[in-house]
Specification:
- It is globular and about 60 Å long.
- Helix 12 packs across helix 14.
- The two termini are 14 Å apart.
- It has a single domain, classed as ABC transporter involved in vitamin B12 uptake, BtuC (Orthogonal Bundle), CATH 1.10.3470.
- It is an all-alpha fold.
Length: 336
Amino acid sequence: MFPQKDQVIIVRISVFLIMLGAIVASAIGSFSIPALDLLSGSLTELQQTVLIEIRLPRVILSGLVGASLGLSGAALQGLFRNPLADPGLIGVSAGAALGAAVVIVLTSDLYIPPSLELFMLPLAGIVGASMVTLLLFVFTKGFGYQGVTYLLLIGIAVNAIASVAIGILTYISTDSELRSLTFWTMGSFGGVTWSVLMPAMVLMISSFFFMLPARRTLDILQLGEIEAYRLGVDVKRVKYRVIFASAAAVGASVAISGMIGFVGLVIPHLARLIGGVNHNYLLPASAAMGSFIMISADVIARMVIQPAELPIGLITSAIGSPFFLWLIFRMKKHDY
């Protein structure tokens, strides 16, 4: 167990890195803005427009998405007592992806007012994530039927069904729809505007404040559900809190940015390796580290093939998949 003082220092360092990364991400790109001018506020009119209308929404979104996935992954791993759990395991990400795929493929020939067109994809993703959460709630009789194993099995089934549906939509799509669908499934923060960001930002931040108070009860849950009941923990209420908050955060993230893999799985393990396993530290640390790594990954995606950019999902998969393999071998040798 790491001392609490060291854990606080780790979280503060992570927050400092977020601020540093945000400054770098705001300055770097196809149109560069000198960091000194950015910090001093002496920007030209063009630089101000690029910063406020393009860079800031993108940096804020990348930070919030990273925090959402990292925090949700840590909370779900604690709830399920499964180090390989992540937000995609219970089907929420797949539901959001299916909702977005339906909009991309099936509404392309319909007339949609320009004022609504901008919101169609995010709304579809959130609706898809909400529908999956509702199905999980019904099938598990309020997240209480036969423990978390039953919930995980239903999540695997939902993922499979959503994959089949997305495959069918991919097959019937036109070339332009296929390109949009493929690019969206790889993830991107490009093109985000304040009007799209603000509702999602409210939803994600609200879910943070709803999830963080569960950190103490998640520690008790590591003893098992029966023991937690004996110690006075309302296990069903904790499940409601964590699952619905995770669904809201992940649904909003996937709806706007697309499918971004490995963040919810890898970041909590990284936080544990650095600072310990107690959730009072782990939840805020996972949120902060996820935010910093996602901002950094977005900078890499923008810089590798300028003026074009790589899908953010490729960057996170390139970073996360080797770590995931190492984690599997580590779990084989030691009790994790």
